Amino acid sequence: MTLPIGFLDINPVAMIIIGTIAVLLFGENLPDMARSFGKKFNDFRKNIQSIQDEIRSAAMSVTSEVTSALDINNLNTSSSTSSSSSENSNGSGQKRRSRTSDEDYEEATAPKFVPPPAPSAASDSENSATIA
Question: Tens digits of per-residue pLDDT, 5-35?
Fold first, then answer.
């Protein structure tokens, strides 16, 4: 069994060797080293998450600006006769489908497996008599 860590495949024997080397190098300081590594790794994950959040918020703001611009454009170009149909429009002239309730959907089912009946002793003796 190997554990994929990045581009490395480390098997249990290699993990034991790495652990032994770490104990030999750091000795008593190993718990402190592991603790500081864990804190730095946690800070790294938090920084990555904040960068992802910034990118998402920027993308959402651009998306909302484009959507509002399309909505304003649609309102300016629509006539008073189509104002009722533009309420259900998504900006591209297509109507949105709205789900009224969960009752519209049926739950998927599978047929129940029924095993074939077991042969009886009487039919076994008949089958052996007809074969012989």
Answer: 565 677 889 889 988 998 888 888 888 888 9
Helices 12-26 + 30-77 axis angle, to 10? 120
Phi–psi pair at 4, nearest 5 degrees: -75, 115
d(CA 65, CA 88): 19
pTM: 0.39
51 with 71: CB under 8 angstroms?
Answer: no
Distance CA 95, CA 75 (A): 15
Give tens-digit pLDDT for 73-87.
777 666 444 444 444
